[in-house]
Amino acid sequence: MDIKSEIQTLSRQLLPEIIEIRRYLHQNPELSFNEVETAVFICKILDGIGISYTTGWAGHGIVGTIRGKSEKVIALRADMDALPIQEQSDKSYISKRSGVMHACGHDAHMSALLGASMILKRLEDQLPYTIRLIFQPGEEKLPGGASMMIEAGVLQNPVPECIIGQHVYPSMETGKVGVRPGLYMASADEIYITVEGKGGHAAMPHECVDTILAASQLIVSLQQLVSRHCPPAIPSVLSFGKFNTIGGATNIIPDAVKIEGTFRTMDEKWRSEAHERIQNIAGDTAASYGARVHVQIIKGYPCLVNNETLTIQLRNAMEQYSGKQNVEHLDLRMTSEDFAFYSHEIPACFYRLGTGNVAKSIYAGVHTPTFDIDEDALETGMGMLAWLAISSTH
Predict the structure, then answer these.
(1) Are 20 and 91 in the same domain?
(2) Are residues 245 and 289 both part of a single domain?
(3) What pLDDT, on a 0 to 100 scale, did the predictor assign at position 303?
(4) What is the DSSP string of 251-310?
(5) What is the pLDDT of residue 218?
């Protein structure tokens, strides 16, 4: 039996066990940087497989090692944290923790990587390279567990040849995968603006500094950032999701207004320029109304770049494993992922695993209370990770 057939056979045989692992993780979600029990559970499974590991990475992260014939390393990554969402489901494996849910599929990511670990451990004597298994905390919360693990040295001693990550994709049918070489996902920054002035009676606006008007005009002015300052070929989004007054009523102009939003793009040079322009536009607009303004921009995850050479190589490997008809080309996404930090350090490939099944009514999007996966997708998930780990060395 060739190694691809062996991986496919092992994936089928391991599927019931991996589904049970996924269900346990789904029932016991933990928020970012609080993945205590999750880490204990993963370590117990790694012990059972016979894989050595170290703990305490960025809090509760785990790094396992499967020794191949060479000291050169291929890294595989799965994230561990859940989201503060109340699950709405009638499934037997619904979250046991009120207000906490694996609504982004990280339970599936961990399960698939554990399945791939079981497969690769059984094929240890055939591995040309050493495999580094990265179970990463805190993907959903700044500064991102990836940046912290990198700072702690997860990509050192030795530097991996590449890193591979997989993410659920509910709009893609189970059995399929998707990938895109080059730029794939956007950077993401948080914007917090406070407009301040002299409030007062709404019937006497001439005696006040109208913070509502100034803040409203500021939002309108900032929308020109993308339409008139961004190079047209660079995808960019500036959106505001919160507009709150401090005080105020139907007949009171408030002393302050708080605005919160997000800025996303796919070019790091423009990203820096845009931050400066946001500050300038805010300052000039507020001043024109006699108001003061404070702008805080929290720099989030960078844009995610799939290494062209590696990703084309792995796309070919995906087609060999699942058939060309089951490998899709992905569109650009303005969402963000902290896997992007890895992609700025070493050759990286981040791809999508189809987990939807319309016939089973499984298609709800990530970050929603009804999100779920077709668990049959875990067979493809673990097998594909194992196959790519081996294929990336050829």
Answers:
(1) yes
(2) yes
(3) 97
(4) TEE-SEEEEEEEEEES-HHHHHHHHHHHHHHHHHHHHHTT-EEEEEEE-----EEE-HHH
(5) 97
| CATH number, domain with residue 218 | 3.30.70.360
Q: Considering its fold, how many domains does the chain have in total?
A: 2
H/E element, 65: strand 61-66
Q: Does residue 82 sit in the same domain as residue 177?
A: yes
Average pLDDT of the chain is: 96
Using DSSP's 3-state secondary structure scheme, residue 43 falls into helix
Q: Which domain holds residue 344?
A: 3-184+303-391
130 and 249 in a common domain? no
Residues 288 and 167 in one domain: no
Closest residue by Cα to residue 185 from 76, 346, 337: 337
| Contact predicate 336/146, CB 8 Å | no
- Two tokens, residue 388: 């790519």
Q: CA–CA separation, 289 vs 291, rounded Å?
A: 5
Calculate ∠ Cα 101-29-59, nearest 5°.
125
Indicate the pTM of the whole model.
Answer: 0.93
Distance of alpha carbon 210 from alpha carbon 255, whole angstroms: 8
Q: Using an 8 Å Cβ cutoff, are 209 and 288 in contact?
A: no
First to last CA, the chain: 19
Question: Over the stretch 98-120, which tens digit does the pLDDT of each residue have?
Answer: 999 999 999 999 999 999 999 99
| CA 302 remoteness from chain centre | 11
Phi, psi angles (nearest 5°) of residue 183: -60, 135
CATH of the domain at 344: 3.40.630.10
Read off the pLDDT of residues 285-301 as tens digits, 9 standing for 90 and up: 999 999 999 999 999 99
Q: What tokens were used for 281? A: 């536009």
Write down which residue in 246, 264, 298 finishes a domain. Answer: 298
User: Residue 97: which pLDDT band, with cuts at 50, 70 and 90?
Assistant: very high
